[in-house]
Amino acid sequence: MPSRIAEPRPDATAALATYGSGRRSAALGLLAASHPLPAAAVTLFAAALTAAVGRGLPGAAATVGAVAAGQLSVGWCNDRADLRRDLAAGRRNKPLAAGAVRPRTVTCAAGLALLLCVPLSLAAGLAAGAAHLVAVAAAWAYNLRLKRTAASWLPYALAFGLLPAFVTLGLPGAPWPPPWLTAGAALLGTAAHFANVLPDIEDDLATGVTGLPQRLGARRSASVAALLAVGSTAALVVGPPGPVTAYGWALLAITAATAVLVVRSPAGPLPFLAVMGLAGADVALLVVQLRG
After folding, report:
1. Spatial distance between the Cα atoms of 97 and 85, rounded to a whole number of angstroms
2. What is the CATH number of domain 178-292?
3. Number of helices and strands in the chain (H, E)
4. What integer pLDDT is reported at residue 21 of this predicted model?
């Protein structure tokens, strides 16, 4: 006679459902704490560059994986370092401040992602790996100290400026990227910094975060972000040898128009989303140029 399997009691079933729901909520909270939009944008930028320069599949996978791991570590480090300030400012949209994920979980995730980033970076070669690890170190330095100083823009310029080098130094002969590409990436990263902090400037000042955008104020920081975005697009449009394409001129005009919009509407998420949109258009131009 087959044995009967006891069905779980209602209270046990409810407990299991609650446990599963809690696990899903914690996983979603951990994902949100990684700053998924900027992390995905930078990773896609690296993937596009890698495809444009013709890296083989193993090297491309390691490069993209290293960038993804580095970005995750930076995002988790950022939210963990900002926990006290987020609580003081009442930022319930932050997963840690809202209690959606435990601080220890985020700390462990940041450390594990950073550890994974090291071998993946070095898999591209010593020079390429060193360039990427310096970029990641700059981002961690921003999270832990430099975001409260007038040099808050410097880690963004350095990290984004080194991203093309991470891709090209992994090629045979380990070539450095052309100066216009490095300049365009550095300017774009710095523009993202100024645009990203605009909605939180008042809360940042109240909690002791006095980076350069906070010192300049929302209006002037929006103007700086706009000028940097235009400069980045100009470097990518005019820098490469040969005539400027119709797409390049159109992109430059769109960037200038978007810059005016950012200066006129510095509040809210619009400036950062505008810079991210321009970054996508810049990457499309860059892929066409490098493949050509």
Report:
1. 9
2. 1.20.120
3. 13, 0
4. 52
